[in-house]
Amino acid sequence: MSKSKKSNTVDMLSGKKVSTMPLINREISWLAFNERVLQEAADKRNPIIERFRFLGIFSNNLDEFYRVRVASIRRMKDFSKKAIADMDIDPKLLLKDIQKMVSAHQKKFENIYEELKHECQDEGIFIINENQLNDAQSELISEYFQNEVRPVLVPLMLDKKRAMPTLKDKGIYLGIKLSNKGEGKDTIYSLIEIPGDKVSRFFVFPKDEKGKTYIILLDDIIRAKIREIYSIFEYEFMEAYTIKFTRDAELDIDDDISSSLLEQIARSIENRKVGDPVRFVYDKNMPDDLKYFLLKQLKISKEENIIPGGRYHNFKDFMSFPKVEGGKLMYTPLPPLSHPFINPKQRLMEQIEGQDIMLNYPYQKFDYIIDLLREAAIDPKVTKICINLYRVAKKSKIINALVSALQNGKKVQVIVELRARFDEQNNIFWSNVLKDAGAELIFGVKGLKVHSKLMLIEKEVKNDVKYFAHIGTGNFHEGTAKIYGDTTLLTCDPRITMEVKKVFDFFESNYKVKRYSHLILSPNGSRRKFLQLINDEISNVSKGKKAEIVLKLNNLVDEELIKKLYEASQAGVKIVLIIRGICSLVPGVKGWSENIEAISIVDRFLEHSRILYFYAGGEEKMFISSADWMVRNLDLRVEVTTPIYNAQLKKQLKKMLSIQMQANVKARSIDAGLSNKYRKAEGTPIQSQLETYEYFRGKLAKSGY
């Protein structure tokens, strides 16, 4: 592993004693998380088609990792020696470690894919290539190629004398070699983009007379017709090999005050198309002359950017693997549940007045949020709606409800974060829609990303104003709410709503920092408050009192908070961490973290909620948050953490945490060696997500909490 001057990560991961604080490098920890996704693709307890989809998720994750994290590390190599000396790690060594881990994962990936193909055959599903087509299939493919594929193909002829055309970093290409015997000067090269954004990546043949299903990839349809595509050439050999090209995707936004932020973001998105290359993945069977020609034309010379792969790339498309009927090929559906304490025949705002309501997705319906907005849009007593948007669906019912409110004469204030990575274009589109409808738009806060998930509805009630607030861990996105595990609080408790109003006031005049007694805000309060909460547990255990902390987060990276958790462990505080992704803290290290257990749950839903529990001398303080424990979330973003005051809702959150803490089916232990070992299933198997669904389906209503 790459060496770290401050953290001795190498020594930590090799199991040797360390004198300085043990930490796992964030990039290495992230790769370990992505390996857990790969484990789900290999797990035969999962249905076959779902396992293909996990391959797609793994591939999509890795693409973003290279476009953002690896690109950033490559930039660090250009820093001065003094700057690199101040870092915890040498970027050159780290890049080598990354490539080593990625290469190992790539081999596992290819083996899993081949195993899955064989297992499919037992279910009567056959993934075939162009060399395995029978006459009837060839005829169908010919018709499909002529009608659907051929019209969108653009072969690019390559020449040493001409510059290489700009390649899309989200696309894949077939590198083509046309040659005759002897490899003479008449060999020519070409590229064809595989048009997966215009034509489905998969062609499913009608079931044959024996009930078997055959599937061929778009790549192989093009390979099958390569002689038709290059029919004007008379070459004996025509070969096609897949390549994938990844560019630096970080936005470079300058401080040109003469341009609006909207224009700067749009310009930066265009710049992504010509970002520096950070990865070139190629079919390892590609002939050397074609490979070196492409590398030279693409100006790729760094060894760490060149990764041999299999016959197929862009497995992210396998996230949409065809829904083939028959057998238990997909998960049993878990449709979102109605909330047991929400009456669909009664106004939602009236019910929120009666008691705080908590929604947990995807177990319960996100539709309630859309219903709340629609209700507010037509309620004559509602005067204003404020909302901050980070990510929304491409066909957003949330936006439609806001437009409806505007058409009904309501004031609508929308804080749009245009720098939500890879959603910038979508956010620009919806910003224009809202602007045209008459909304007041605020594009974030200068120097800070707005990552909070807030909504505030203002309603006139008997010559007074009542506020209804939404504080959540996830986005206002009805699509991701079906697969992301998130938690939302709906309340009209003035302790909370008046402070949510302060946050929206801050968005309007961001030079005014407010004081908060209930909400915890980044960038000015989160770090201090979280440290205080941990210190309180340390103080209690020093007095002989019970002390416990449970943290459910996506990522735990911040060194100051990790150091404080180590201090708490050393004092005797019992700590359980449920961390989906990056965990730089190392549990179970003698003298450091004997009292810390850390697990990661990767299953059919993406664990996304942030839930914090502190025993607090028996008062049991609980919070939900939009913030992970990373420097960016604590110091460089607007994030909101809200306390949960309602006793019944606290019981719900405790139950959810308890289920996950007992998980022994899809939970892995986080350890120094990044082994990703599944927890031992001692006693009753507990698959936490299924158990949580059952809790919300029946046990919650019966128990009353």
Could you describe the 3D structure shown?
The protein is an alpha/beta fold. It has three domains: 43-320, polyphosphate kinase like (2-Layer Sandwich); 348-508, 2-Layer Sandwich (Endonuclease, Chain A); 520-703, 2-Layer Sandwich (Endonuclease, Chain A). Helix content is 37%, strand content 20%. The strands form four sheets. Strands 14, 18, 19, 20, 21, 23, 24, 25 and 26 form a nine-stranded mixed beta sheet that branches. It is globular, with a radius of gyration of 27 Å. 43% of the residues are buried.
Write a brief structural summary.
Helices cover 37% and strands 20% of the residues.
The biggest beta sheet reads:
9 strands, mixed
Instruction: Note the beta-strand portion.
Output: 15-25%
What number of domains?
3
Q: Tell me what the CATH architecture of the largest domain is.
A: 2-Layer Sandwich
Q: Which CATH class of the largest domain is shown?
A: Alpha Beta
Mean pLDDT: 88
| CATH level 4 superfamily of the largest domain | Polyphosphate kinase middle domain
| Structural class designation | alpha/beta
Secondary structure tally, helices: 20
CATH topology heading of the largest domain: polyphosphate kinase like
As a whole number of angstroms, the C-alpha radius of gyration is: 27 Å
Global geometry = globular
Q: Which regions contain 5 or more consecutive residues with pLDDT less than 50?
A: 1-18, 251-259
